[in-house]
Structures are given as structure tokens and as C-alpha cells.
Amino acid sequence: MIMNSNTNNAVAVKEKKLTDKELKSVFYRSIAYNSSFNYERQLNLGWAFSLMPVLRKLYGDDKEKMKKALQRHLEFNNITPFICTVLFGITSAMEEQNANDENFDTDSINAVKVGLMGPLSAIGDSLFFGTIRVIAAGLGCSLALKGYIFGPFLYLLLFNIPNFLSRYFLMFEGYRLGTGFLSKVEESGIMDKIFKGAGILGLMVIGAMVATNVSVPIKVVYDQMSLQDTINGIVPNLLPLCLTAFIYRMLKKDVKVVYILAFIILFGILGAAIGIF
């Protein structure tokens, strides 16, 4: 019994466990995750830099293991920064398991990273770039166009508060749930509800932006009646809607943005020259 107790104590002493200190350090470093970029391995330097507190805690006393860990995390890496910490958390949990299990397959760490980069990036881009940024920009630009100096600050707050909150909490959730994170999220069905609600809200904001920020001022007057007022009396903001639909149609046909911008500029200059605008 004494021998077993001593053996258990020895094992307990050797076990390495990450703490909130290391996870918070990874969160802070992840803010600079996409500040370094190269065409060969994309964001691998930012990834390795962000994960260093975890690697030092687990392999700091073994240079050979640290070397191999750095080699693992200097492979190709690219994930949208707004949701990258969930993958940092999952990777940290796997590295911790590897540090305490000599039979752990280290190839599975990169396999999980590569497998999750695409799906997680799709979630992060659609939620932050496709929804939150559109909403924040719409509200911020509306205030700025009316002369309120708070407009740009509102945009920064609306976009960055969810950004940093998601990074912070996903770091700990990713570590706590490990590789079972995505399966648990998928089983709960909560992401589908979030995407549906965010999509509806995003479309509403885009519609409001078209009505408030797109202008097609027509100066044509017939029999003391403005053509602009007549069209707005039938369908308010019909001309901005038609212009936006036309641009969207050109984008769907893979017309280059430069050509579309050139067309808008030339069309505006020509219309002003002949007195339509």
C-alpha cells in the first residue's frame, strides 16, 4: 500500500497542468495573431508566438520536446482571428495531453488544426465580417454622415466588444471542452439559431443602409413637378434600390470592382454634365 501511494504521488508530481495564467497569456498574444504574414505558411508565426506560454509551461524543461512542439506549430496556419482562440484552446488541451502521455500521437494535433481551420473560419467570417461589421458600419456611418463625431467610435465599439469577448471566452471553452467542442456545439443546434437571427438582422441593416446611404439625385422637372418626388411618391427610395440591385448583378456576373467603380464615376459625371443629376 505504501509503495502504491508513493507511486501515485510520483505520477501526480510529474503531471503537467495548464492554468488560467497560460490561457490568458495566449488570449493576449492572439490579438497580434494576424500581424505577421507570409505566402508560404500564412499566419504560422503569429500562431507559434501566441501559443508560446503553453509550450513553455509544458516543455520548458525539455529542449528537444520544445523544438518538436515549435516545429509542429510553425506549419501552415490560417484561421480567422476573431474566433482563433477556440482552436488555441483545443490545441492547448491536446498539447497538455501529449505532455502527460508518452503514447500520444502528436500528428493528431496538426490533423485537428488543419481539419478545423476551414469550418471555424467560415463561422468567424460570416458572423463577424458578414454580419457584425455590416451592422456596426451601418450604424456608425449613419451617425457620421449626420455630423456626429461619435459615429466612428460607435463602429469600433460595436465591432470590437464582441470581438474581444468572443476571443476571451472561446479560449477557455476550447480548452475545457477540448476536441469535443464542435461536436457539442453541433449537437445543441445553437449555432444554426445564431446564424439565422444574425442573417435576418444583417439583411435589415443592409436594406436600411441602401435607403439612407445610397443617393441618386435626379434634377429633371416636368411641368413644375420633380421626377424625383414622383418616383419617391410611388415607391420611396426606388432609384437607390435599382442602382444597388444593378451593382449586385454585376458582381454576380464577376465584373471587376474597378470597372463598376469606373462606370459609376463616369455615369455620375456624364449625368451632371447634361443636367440629369
Task: Give the helix/strand layout.
Layout: H1 2-14, H2 20-30, H3 44-59, H4 63-73, H5 84-100, H6 107-145, H7 150-177, H8 181-188, H9 190-213, E1 221-222, E2 225-226, H10 227-234, H11 238-252, H12 257-273
Helix pairs in contact: 2-3, 2-5, 2-7, 3-4, 3-5, 5-6, 5-7, 6-7, 6-9
Helix content bin = over 70%
The major pleated sheet works out as:
2 strands, antiparallel
- What pattern of helices and strands is seen along the backbone? HHHHHHHHHEEHHH
Q: Number of helix segments?
A: 12
- What structural class do you assign from the helix and strand content? mainly alpha
User: Taking all residues together, what is the mean pLDDT?
Assistant: 81
Rg to the nearest angstrom?
27 Å
Number of strands: 2
Widest sheet: strand order?
A: 1-2
Strand content: under 5%
Number of domains: 2
Shape: elongated
Which runs of at least 5 residues are low in confidence (pLDDT < 50)? 5-12
Termini separation (Å)?
Answer: 94 Å
